[in-house]
Design a protein that fits this description.
The complex is a heterodimer. By secondary structure, chain A is an alpha+beta fold. Chain A is built from two helices and three strands, in the order H-E-E-H-E. Classes of the chains: A alpha+beta, B alpha+beta.
Chain lengths: 76, 116
Amino acid sequence: MPMAADDITRLIKERFPDAEIRIEDLAGDGDHYAATIVSEAFRGKTRVQQHQMVYDALKGSMGGALHALALKTTAP
Amino acid sequence: MSAEDIQDWLRKEIAGNDVVLFMKGTKTMPQCGFSMQVAQILNHLGVDFKDVNVLEDMSVREGIKAYSNWPTIPQLYVKGEFVGGCDIVREMFQANELQELLTTKGIVHNQQTMTA
């Protein structure tokens, strides 16, 4: 059950309005993405916490509708 | 086993082994590319680790996600602490941070880097 890149961007933007988001569809199948997200919200957080914040923003899609989303998160 | 029993079992596995990798498949026969990458990094570093194949038990597979509030497999634990999934472990390995973490935690490993 694939998920459109726009939906991923929208959910992330809702949670992190300041975020710079780059999403790549790795396999062209709408199921394997890589996302680079830069947001002030990540400052001072560990990588695990940063990724948990993103997964939380995706509201349970990760591991469900979204099979693979390689994440790279940083503060500006 | 009940969900509580599973959490209890997970706690013991994680506390009882210095390095534990919850993965799809086994270290000798990974069943998913992401699990394979983490197992390869650990093997490359010569780290002795316990592998738990989540495909063998659906309750373990779901239980470990609840345990760490982390929605995906693989999951790496060092000395009881959740280190991360495939992206984080790879990023840490490339930045030499994983090697530093292992050293800090007193885990025997060799000093291989990306280019070695």
